[in-house]
Design goal:
Order of helices and strands: HEEEEEHEEEHHEEHH
Strand content: 15-25%
Structural class: alpha+beta
Number of domains: 2
Domain Protein kinase: 32-212
GO molecular function: protein serine/threonine kinase activity
Keywords: Kinase, Serine/threonine-protein kinase, Transferase
Organism: Fictibacillus terranigra
CATH architecture of the largest domain: Orthogonal Bundle
Protein name: Serine/threonine protein kinase
């Protein structure tokens, strides 16, 4: 782990990550070889090293002060099959257990079936977090993965914020009212532009509804 910690520090110093819009994922302008970018969220980018396939480095591109909150969340969660684990951290990054699988978002894009068990797993993981004194929020299709048949929440960065969030409850309703009865048996492959349009439309709808 000491060697990996050194590599993670070097990556954090050399990688160039920018944030153009608070509502959109950060962008990676440069990352040194042989690190591979796995994905970007609204706060951070996640990288994997080929020699350490079971670990990832999550580097914050903005709101670095919230990194401390995420560390605190992982401490409160402890070990649970519905979440990753934090093995270390620096001023701008976390070292996490890598969850291998496919996000619900990519399942829709690739036409991969989403079993009901995955939804139940996430429900149970959210209840567990609440019992640990946390406030689960910002759980959506890009933050939930199917790994070895289980549903796992891969981003807990907002679990310290005691604010209402309907993303998971809305996604859950859509799953049971639309996806399960109509698309589960014959899943469609939805292009990314369409999925992104749904994401943006949902965001605008929620803002409009809150103003009413």
């Amino acid at each position: 782990m000491n060697k990996y910690t050194e590599l993670a520090e070097e990556l954090t110093q050399e990688a160039r990550i920018i944030s153009r819009n608070p509502g959109d994922p950060v962008e990676v302008l440069y990352a040194p070889e042989p690190w591979k970018l796995l994905g970007c969220g609204n706060y951070a980018a996640v990288f994997v090293h080929p020699e350490y396939p079971d670990l990832v480095v999550k580097i914050y591109g903005r709101n670095h002060e919230e990194l401390l909150e995420e560390i605190s969340v992982y401490r409160q969660l402890g070990e649970h099959q519905g979440y990753s684990q934090c093995y270390g951290y620096g001023e701008r990054h976390l070292i996490l257990k890598r969850i291998k699988g496919i996000t619900l978002y990519d399942c829709l894009h690739k036409g991969v079936k989403i079993p009901e068990k995955v939804i139940r797993d996430v429900d149970e993981a959210l209840r567990y977090a609440q019992k640990r004194g946390l406030f689960p929020r910002d759980v959506h299709g890009k933050n939930v993965m199917i790994s070895e048949g289980r549903g796992i929440i891969v981003d807990v960065s907002d679990f310290c914020k005691n604010e209402e969030c309907y993303k998971w409850s809305d996604l859950r309703k859509a799953y049971y009212k639309i996806y399960l009865p109509f698309f589960y048996r014959f899943p469609l492959r939805v292009p990314y532009p369409v999925l992104n349009g749904i994401r943006i439309g949902y965001r605008w709808y929620k803002r409009w509804k809150m103003k009413k």
